[in-house]
Amino acid sequence: MREKGFVSTSRWKQALYVTVIYAGIALVFTLLGILLGPQGAQVGGTRPTDTIPGHLLELAGFGLLLGLFCMVIYGRKGFPFVILVPLLTVLLDIDHLPVYLGYAQTIRPAHSVVFLVTVLAVAAVTIRALDIELAVASAFMAHLAMDSGLFAPLSPLSFQYIELNPYRPAFAIGAVMCTLAAGAVLRARADRAGSLGSKDIAQTSPGSTGNPAQFC
User: pLDDT tens digits, residue range 166-216?
Assistant: First the structure.
């Protein structure tokens, strides 16, 4: 379908759908952590209350920077990423919800490679938009690049915790690369749509090789 205007309606719908998928699966992983995690792993905690707003701003800021970077390089069609990437970057912390409600939980149950693979698989089947999937991967890695402390990379298959800090630079680089790749896919799609549109115009214009009856 040819895109019209600033950004197509279908692009905003895809961004909304993937946000719902992302949040829903994060909550499922959080529940699985509570149900499957051994008692010794139910040690998830919270940040000091006065540091939470600053951390959320850091997450949103890095995500916004990635989205703007994509838009600057690839043009206005990348505008959804300016909203989607920071939103998903912050939204990953929804997996801290139980501890804020007073329940024991595992540490960062959705900060997991298994979570990312699951989201991408569901998005690939339901949304089928590679640029959106790359934006999801970018947001996930952007979040981990801004976090510190322990996480379980294979949750809920394993609750073996490892230190996140040594991997933060790699996650930051991965976030940038996925954003660039998402923009490149989006630009290629726009160029392809423009090329098809030009061919349609040429075929229906006077003097073309189309059906002469349409000009009678």
Answer: 999 999 999 999 999 998 888 887 777 666 555 555 555 555 554 444 333
Contact 133, 123 (CB under 8 A): yes
Task: Indicate whether 216 belongs to any domain.
Answer: no
Beta-carbon contacts of residue 5 (< 8 Å; ≥ 6 apart) = none
Total structural domains within the chain:
1
Please report whether residue 126 resides in a domain: yes
Considering the domain boundaries, does residue 203 fall inside one? no
Of 137, 125, 126, 119, the closest CA to residue 81 belongs to 137
Closest by CA to 118, choosing from 15, 24, 213, is 24
Sign, CA torsion 25/23/118/111: negative
User: Residue 105: which domain range?
Assistant: 9-189
Asked whether the beta carbons of 153 and 112 are under 8 A apart, the reply is: yes
136: in domain: yes
